[in-house]
């Protein structure tokens, strides 16, 4: 399999560590810089909304966090699939490393959404379709983390969690389309939609800056966590050999 | 097919002979449901409002009770290794186990549901819709539960972990079952045709979930079993 061979080129942990060492010094300042610029644009450089006033600024954290929560879950399910199909050792490490990050993004999205919902909808929490499916996503992440660590045999936990991640991926389209299928409180999609975004460019640019910053931050943290886990495994193997 | 039926027969016989387990599930279902009149007060209208919802959620919880024994006992005494070595594909083993769970847990819960509904003062018009919705919901609970049982088999704190993994996956099933019952009787002042259409739509969605799970979970469960047997 051509794809399998390609992936196995990066399966070597040593190669990954070298790659991570080369990329992280560039990605880290880029992520911090983008987040700083994005926060400046979001908090100071962009206009308040004509209806929502200053509270619209919560969007610049809420929306990127929610995007990342779904993106990371997609990546988690893909890593699970590569781990099960090609027995790719790095993707198991990657899945274990990214699950807490995804849970963190989901948590940020839920909490910032609650804080935004209080002034806008008059309630911190409503049983709206998108809120409910996002809460389920959070529980899927927690279940994934718990299952990974539930076994004495590490690999068993990682592979069982991979099966769970793949089955749980059914939730992703439900989240994406929940606002269209069940027209409840949460507003429908206003950026990725037919006929272009429904948001003014003055708000769109800060949002994209923040989204890119979140994205880079995720890869920096993922790289650091995977590096730490690989070094730990190497250390343990060395201690065992002695 | 022969091996499938033999496994089904064996598991049903085991479930029947260890009859106390089946009763425990039903008793838990009733006992947990009876907590509600004490917690929210015995006022008939308040109870009527929550009755079918309590029946549904207690059924989901009770279905979890018997799950951790579904594979664990066979795993511990080595019979699961024998079953895996037999001519029966693991996918069909998973299907048989889910079927056994439904027959030994889903059906008794279905039989006990009207009793709990009666004690919670459910409206008479809601009994039949509730039973139909429950009959379509319980197979999904068994299929998902079988997957959870296979995933957590042999883990530390298996039972609690199983609950954490499976309850979120039960939510869509509960949503559509509750949605179907919501159209029962003279709810929301809809005309008979409109209510019937709403009821039917939710039942179709429930049946769709059942079929999708029937197609997906045996493979996922078998994959989980393979991980456990290899380790």
Could you provide a short overview of the structure?
The complex is a heterodimer of chains A (242) and B (231). Chain A is mainly alpha-helical and 242 residues long.
What does this protein look like?
- The complex is a heterodimer of chains A (242) and B (231).
- Chain A is mainly alpha-helical and 242 residues long.
- Helices cover 78% and strands 0% of the residues of chain A.
- Chain A starts with a helix and ends with a helix.
- Chain B is mainly alpha-helical and 231 residues long.
- Chain B has one domain.
- Chain B has nine helices and no strands.
- Chains A and B meet through helix 5 and helix 6 of A and helix 7, helix 8 and helix 9 of B.
Tally of alpha and pi helices of chain A: 8
Order of helices and strands of chain A: HHHHHHHH
Largest sheet of chain A: none
User: β content of chain B, as a range?
Assistant: under 5%
Low-confidence spans of chain A: 1-5
The greatest interface between two protein chains, and residues involved on each side, is:
A-B, 24 and 25 residues
Number of strands of chain A: 0
Distance between the termini of chain B: 29 Å
What structural class results from the helix and strand content of chain A? mainly alpha
Q: Kindly name the structural category of chain B.
A: mainly alpha
Cα separation of the termini of chain A: 38 Å
Count of distinct strands of chain B: 0
Task: Please tell me the total number of domains of chain B.
Answer: 1
Residues in helix, % of chain B: over 70%
Residue fraction in strands of chain A:
under 5%
Specify the overall morphology of chain B.
Answer: globular
Low-confidence region ranges of chain B: none
The helix content of chain A, as a percent range, equals over 70%
**Cα Rg of chain A:** 20 Å
